Amino acid sequence: MAATVANGNGMPAQTALNTYVGFDTITQQIEKKLLKRGFQFNVMVVGQSGLGKSTLVNTIFASHLIDTKARLEADEVVRQTTEIENVSHFIEENGVRLKLNIVDTPGYGDQVNNDACWEPLIKYIKDQHSAYLRKELTAVRDKYIQDTRIHCCLFFIAPTGHSLKPLDIVVLKKLSQVVNVVPVIAKSDSLTLEERQAFKERIKAELHFHEIRLYPYESEEDDEQEMALNESIRDLIPFAVVGSERNVVIDGRPVRGRKNRWGVVNVENENHCEFVHLRNFLTRTHLQDLIETTADIHYEAFRSKQLLALKESSQSANSPPSQSQSPMSVSQ
Ligand SMILES: Nc1nc2c(ncn2[C@@H]2O[C@H](COP(=O)(O)OP(=O)(O)OP(=O)(O)O)[C@@H](O)[C@H]2O)c(=O)[nH]1
Ligand SMILES: [Mg+2]
Question: Of 92, 153, 180, 226, which shows the fewest CB atoms inside 10 Å?
Fold first, then answer.
């Protein structure tokens, strides 16, 4: 048996190398493999009807990915999202391929009775966890399990300037237990900067009061830099955004924007709205963390709950698991 040389505290001894060995290339080797495989990011948009959910997704990823109510021509019919729609696109940037899965949900809150309007959303999220667990537990596993788990749920708040609606609070509470929720103030071009700030503060206070736990979560593993970054994100949340599928010309340059009677809103101008902050957060700083957190926190909670329930039921029955107790049929 090989002996391990350890120093006083039981840790392996630090040994200096006499020559270049080359294992520092492991990061490049990993990168090569990852680039070949590509990445997967699944986003869900949730909120009341007509808040610009579909428009914002198209604005973030700078393409027409999903249909919106917006009409590019005056005689076009209005296209409303009426059921949970799942759209996949491959996008590529400098050799990095991202499979983007967008789950567009119909606006809720239109019905006379809005009880349990969040149920199809929660069910959808849990169904993806359940499908993943099932694939993990099969005897012959795929090398890479197709990941359809929702990594980020963008939650749209109506720009009322007052407070969150009671229905929003209920839905936010339910969602935040199963997915990374990122709230945004929709159509923030309808608020003045002062109104926007006051609205934000009120929403923050309400979220705190109702103990709604939002992403990014505090983690002991974070270093000082990550903690500072997450703190600045928590300060910004809810991001006050404006979406647009159209270009307007500003200083001779076409930019994503909205023209109204008072002037032009440039979606990408930080003085006009916080769209750029949201996009940077989703794509440049937290993309990988959103994916990891989904697996480590939300999926892990689902997985352990299901496996515990399975163990308990098989113990109480004191017999081999039957079909109804198998993880293939775990309750939602
Ligand atoms: N003023 C303003 N209008 C917006 C903004 N974003 C979208 N709109 C407009 O709002 C309307 C609804 O946009 P959609 O993106 O279809 O809204 P939705 O939330 O997907 O609607 P449902 O699918 O019916 O729930 C369209 O006419 C958009 O042009 C915004 O930031 N500001
Ligand atoms: Mg829509």
Answer: 92
- Domains of the chain listed by start with CATH number: 36-135+144-310 (3.40.50.300)
At 94-120, the pLDDT tens digits run: 989 999 899 988 877 766 667 788 899
Return the SS3 of 91: strand
Alpha carbon of 81 to ligand 2 centroid (Å):
4
Query: What lines the ligand 1 site, CB under 6 Å?
Result: 49-55, 68-70, 80-81, 106-107, 187, 189-190, 242-243, 258
* Mean pLDDT, each 10-residue run in order, the chain (332 residues): 58 88 94 90 92 89 66 55 83 89 82 78 96 90 87 97 93 96 96 94 96 93 93 95 90 87 87 92 94 97 94 78 50 46
273 CA: nearest ligand 1 atom: 31
CA 68–ligand 2 middle distance (angstroms): 5
How remote is the CA of residue 85 from the centroid of ligand 1, in Å?
Answer: 16
User: In whole angstroms, what is the distance from residue 294 CA to residue 145 CA?
Assistant: 15
Question: Which ligand 1 atom minimizes the distance to the CA of 186?
Answer: 31
Write phi, then psi, for 203 (nearest 5 degrees).
-65, -45
Q: What are phi and psi of 254, to 5 degrees?
A: -75, 130
Condensed to tens digits (0 to 9), the pLDDT of residues 15-71 reads 888 899 999 999 999 999 989 888 999 999 999 888 999 899 888 877 666 666 555
DSSP-derived 3-state class of residue 286:
coil
| pLDDT-above-90 percentage for the chain | 54
CA nearest neighbour of 87 among 98, 101, 107: 101
Reported as type and span, the H/E element at residue 185 is strand 181-185
Mutate to test the pocket of ligand 1, among 69, 80, 265 (most ligand atoms within 8 A of CB): 69
| Ligand 1 atom showing the smallest separation from residue 49 Cα | 25
Q: Whose CA is nearest to atom 1 of ligand 1?
A: 187
